[in-house]
Specification:
Structural class: alpha/beta
Order of helices and strands: EHEHEHEHHHHHHEHEHH
Shape: globular
Helix content: 40-55%
Radius of gyration: 17 Å
Strand content: 5-15%
Oligomer: single chain
Number of helices: 12
Distance between the termini: 33 Å
Length: 251
């Protein structure tokens, strides 16, 4: 979803999803269908022929604009979307509270050099994606990140049509280099999740976040894509956070 003007009859979403690199909105369909609360999926710049972002920071700026317009209670980022949501939260932790975002859930964000094995994997794969990269190079990256069995559940035409944007995003992600001090500045409004079935370096990322005081949670039976791996579990998690936000506001 872009930040273009919305008809006044459309309800504001309680939940804003920020999908991962190359992840089509359909990947979130089961979760959005099951959620009782209204939700929206942010369409990042460059998809569907919209103006692309020029850098990681520029894309975070555009996410910030969308959040300011849509005013969700909860932002849910997955994979590269989690990285963008975490970067936004690092910038704007002072604005959390009533009338603004109450909670940000980040599932398996990239943390730069704080997790050396993850950093090496992402950076080495991104280095192979040049301006003239083939679709095969991009699919190889997505297969490595999501797993071929999951990536094949994405509409093939989505990846093909948005290949230039996806390549740009792959190159952008390593620009995010938070420090432990940055992560330590995040307040309790962040919840970092990791899948039980994800690689060790993903769990190491959550350990780094936990060491900085961020609340963390292991999702049983899930991997890098909980909306596909464990949609019912992911729905319960989001609704639990929404219920907690409602109780907090009422108090």
């Amino acid at each position: 979803m872009s930040s273009s003007p919305r008809p006044s009859s459309d309800p504001l979403p309680s939940v804003l999803f920020v999908p991962g690199i190359g992840m089509p909105p359909q990947a979130l369909g089961a979760v959005r269908w099951a959620l009782a609360a209204p939700s929206a999926v942010w369409q990042r710049p460059g998809y569907r022929a919209t103006e692309p972002g020029s850098s990681f920071d520029a894309v975070v700026d555009q996410l910030s604009d969308a959040i300011a317009e849509l005013r969700p209670s909860i932002v849910v980022g997955i994979s590269g979307g989690a990285t963008l949501a975490l970067a936004w939260a690092l910038r704007t932790s002072a604005v959390f509270g009533p009338g603004s975002v109450e909670r940000v859930i980040v599932h398996e964000p990239f943390l730069g050099g704080l997790v050396p094995e993850l950093d090496h994997n992402v950076a080495s794969l991104a280095a192979r994606i040049g301006d003239d990269s083939s679709l095969a190079d991009i699919l190889a990256f997505l297969d490595t990140v999501y797993g071929e069995h999951h990536r094949r559940r994405f509409p093939p035409e989505w990846v093909d049509r948005n290949s230039i944007t996806i390549a740009d995003e792959i190159r952008m992600i390593p620009e995010f280099e938070p420090t432990l001090a940055d992560l330590g500045s995040i307040d309790r409004s962040i919840l970092a999740t990791v899948g039980e079935l994800s690689p060790v370096f993903r769990r190491q990322a959550n350990e780094v976040l936990a060491s900085a005081g961020v609340e963390t949670l292991l999702l049983p039976g899930a991997g890098h894509l909980p909306p596909i791996d464990q949609p019912e579990l992911f729905v319960r998690l989001i609704e639990r956070e929404l219920d907690a936000e409602v109780r907090s506001t009422a108090a």
